[in-house]
Design a protein that fits this description.
By secondary structure, the chain is α/β, with parallel strands linked by helices. It has 3 domains: about 90 residues, Orthogonal Bundle (Arc Repressor Mutant, subunit A); about 90 residues, 3-Layer(aba) Sandwich (D-Maltodextrin-Binding Protein, domain 2); about 110 residues, D-Maltodextrin-Binding Protein, domain 2. The protein contains 10 helices and 13 strands. The strands form 2 sheets. Strands 3, 4, 5, 6, 7, 8, 9, 10, 11, 12 and 13 form an 11-stranded mixed β-sheet that branches. The chain has a two-stranded antiparallel sheet with strand order 1-2. A hairpin with a 6-residue loop joins strand 1 and strand 2. Helix 1 packs across helix 2, helix 1 packs across helix 3 and helix 2 crosses helix 3. The longest helix has 29 residues. Belongs to the LysR transcriptional regulatory family.
Length: about 290
Amino acid sequence: MVVDLIGSCRAFVSVSEAGTFTAGAALARIPQPVASRRIAALERHFGERLFDRSTRRALLTPFGRDMLPSAKRLVALADTLEHDARRARLRPMRLAMPETCTVRELAELDAAARELDVFLEFRQAPPRERAELVRTQEVRAALTAVPGEEGSWKVPLGLAGGGRPRTDVLHLETLRVGRSGGSPRRVWIQPEDDVPHLRDRLFRIRDAVGLRPAQVSVADSLTAAAAAVFGSDDLLLCSAAQATELGLSWRTIGEIRLVRGFEIMAGPGEDAQRLRARLGPDIARCLGAEETT
């Protein structure tokens, strides 16, 4: 028979301290019959009596006195282990997130995680930095930028600007500067999309339709890109959710379909699988994406 050494030793220690089986069981917060059975099982396991049952009080036998210090150490170690486990569960998991996530979106993700006893601590950073933060162990996991077809989450991109568009699609070729000159309209790429699988594809379309090199440029920040769009006829490469947040009108791009892809990168262990399995839909809402895997 398998003996629950920790539970049995806890009953043994409690009864020895209280002096009776009834009081010891109450101290251990278990019924008296359970305490008796556990101590009896421990005695069978050791092959010796721990208590002298010839009196009304629970008196230790010489063998019981010898075993009591070790039993106390085992119970104390078990209590320490349980305490450390509780602290470990409450320790936040540092997660690197895109800078495009708003405070509300992050707060809603945090709240959803807490419902599952997962505690998150966010660090927002550009795409290249997020992967590096995992490698340097500054965070336990990160949502990294990947090509759309490789991502667990996908965010379609389009072009956003002021005014009311006449159509739902904007072709980049319509931004070509005519012979009459004039100020060329520009497309601004925010830092989140300054990755080869998005930036370089847009540059190739720019060149193919005859736009000037400066008409598709990378901005230093989303704030700077949005400011340039607010003050002109320029356009911002962004998601539909970002356009709504900024009060801009959003259209898809006629010549190309661009999609932000996101995947979880984590260090050794099951952090990536755990986050994907338990918080996949909540991460999708935070990103403004649809979960695909």
